[in-house]
Amino acid sequence: MAAGVAHEINTPLGIILGYAQLMLDDFEKNSEEYESVEIIERQTKACRRIVADLLRFSRQTESTKAPIDINAVISDVLAVTEHNLNINKITVERCFEENLPTIYGDAEKLQQVFINLINNAQYAMLKGGSLVITTSSNDQVVKVTVRDNGTGIPAEIKNKIFTPFFTTKEVGKGTGLGLSVTYGVIQEHNGSITFESPVPAEDGTEQPGTQFLITLPMYREKKTTENMSLQ
Question: What are the residues whose beta carbons fall under 8 Å from the beta carbon of 107, sequence distance 6 or more?
Answer without folding.
Answer: 66, 68, 73, 76
